[in-house]
Amino acid sequence: MQIKTLNPLSKHALEEIGLEWHTDQDNTDYISTDLITINQAQADAYYAACNELYDMCVETAQMVIDQERFFELDIPNSIVPMIKQSWENDIHWHIYGRFDLAGGLDGQPIKLLEFNADTPTMLYESALVQWALLKHNGYNAELQFNNIFEALGENFKRLVTLQEDTSAFAQEYEGWKILFSCVQGSSEEERTTRFLQECAKSAGFDTHFAYIDKVEFNAETGVFYEGINYEFLFKLIPWENIAIDEPELAMLMQGMMENQNTIFLNPAYTLIFQSKRFLKLLWEHYPNHPLLLETSYEPLRNKKQVRKVAFGREGANTQILNPDLSVIHETGGIYGNHKPIYQEFAPLNKVGEFYYQPNVFYAYEACGLGFRKGGLVMDNFSKFVSHIIQ
C-alpha cells in the first residue's frame, strides 16, 4: 500500500463544512491524515466487485422470500409482511448501501465482509470530506472513486422513473414530497440524513427534515409533519430496532404500507441484506464464489474465522478465532442476544500496526470509496481515511 500524509483540516474547518463528529471519545481525531494511493485498475475492480455483489444479493434475497427463510436470518416476525410487500413492488426503491470489504490492494483479493444496506453512515465523509481534504492539500479532487452525490441524486429520481434511465423524471414527477428523519442528538446521523435530503432536493424533489419524534404516523392517512402529508419517509433508523423496540410503530407502518399511503426509505427488504446471517445464504447460493468467504451458522472446521452476530454494529460482539476456536481477539457489546454466524477470516491490508478496510457505497451502482483504519476489528474508534487515484 502507498500512503501519503495529508495536512489536516482544522476542527473549525471541519465544522464549517458540516463534520461536527471530528473527535472520538478518546480525544483522538476521527479524520486520519493518511491518504491511500490506488490506481485506476484497483478502483475499477472495487466498482465491478460491488456491482456483481449487489446482483448476487438480489438473487439470494429472492431465494429467502421464496423459501420463507426469515427466521434463520434473525428477522423479527412482525416485520416480515413489510419485507414481502416492499419486495414485490419496484416503487420501494433501494436508495443506498455500503459494502464493507477486505483486500483489493497489494495483490490481496477483494472479499465481502458485510453489506450495510439499511442505515449506513460514513456517507458524508466519503462523499464530501475526502474531496475537501484533497483540495486543501492541493491535489486534483476529481482523482477519486467518488461520485456519491450525483449517484444518489439519480437514484432518488428512480423513485419516479423506476428504471435506469432517469431522463423522464421532470415529466413524470408530480410533486411527491420526501420527509427526511432521524433521532435527535447525533450530529453524525443528522448530517447523514440532511446530506441525503440535499441529494434528493438537488434531483428535483420537494423535501423537508424533521426529528422522528415529531413525525406523525397514521395507518389510514399516512405520514404528517406540521400538518403536511408526505408521500415518502426516509428514516435513518434500523428496521430491526423498529421491529424490536417500537412494536406499535412497526404495526402502524405496516398499516400504512397496506393502505399504500407511504413509501419508507430504505425499504424494509434491506433488512434481509443487513442481517449478517445473509452471508451464509450468499455462500449457499454462490458456493466458492471468489468475492465471498465461507460462512456458516456453525463454527467452521480447521479454519481461522470470525464470529459475528446477525445485527451487531460498529464491530461489537465480534470474535476472531483460531482454527481450534481459541479466541485471538474479541469485542464486547449489546448485541449478544442475536444469532451468530462464523465467517472465514480474510486479512485486511496492513501497514505498521494498523489495518485498512475499504468501504464502497452503492446507489444503483457502486459510486464511492473510502477506507477505515483501525485494529483487528473496525469499531467506534476506527478512523476515516481518504484516497486518491494516481
From TrEMBL:
InterPro entries: GSPS_pre-ATP-grasp-like_dom, PreATP-grasp_dom_sf
Gene3D superfamilies listed in its UniProt record: 3.30.1490.330
Top-level division of the source organism's lineage: Bacteria
Domain Glutathionylspermidine synthase pre-ATP-grasp-like residue range list: 11-389
Pfam families, per the entry: GSP_synth
The entry's keywords: ATP-binding, Ligase, Magnesium, Metal-binding, Nucleotide-binding
Record-given protein name: Glutathionylspermidine synthase Gsp
Organism of derivation: Helicobacter gastrocanis
Taxonomic lineage: Bacteria, Pseudomonadati, Campylobacterota, Epsilonproteobacteria, Campylobacterales
